[in-house]
Description:
Elements: H1 7-13, E1 18-20, H2 29-35, E2 43-46, E3 49-52, H3 55-63
Antiparallel strand pairs: 1-3, 2-3
Amino acid sequence: MNQSKTKFDLWMDWRPNRIKLKDKFDIRTDMLCDMIGMTEDDFQVKGKEIRFSNKSNMAFFRMNIDE
């Protein structure tokens, strides 16, 4: 993670790379991201929204969920 930016700064920067999860989505997103090889520097989860550091990570996550 870029040490000069806080997690909040990254959350705001990553807004274009977000997925809003449906209420019925019950898979732990952090576990899924870990299983597909992402680290905590690649994504952040808040409530029913997940944001990614880049579009590639977002696309890879989307391919691995059944929504």
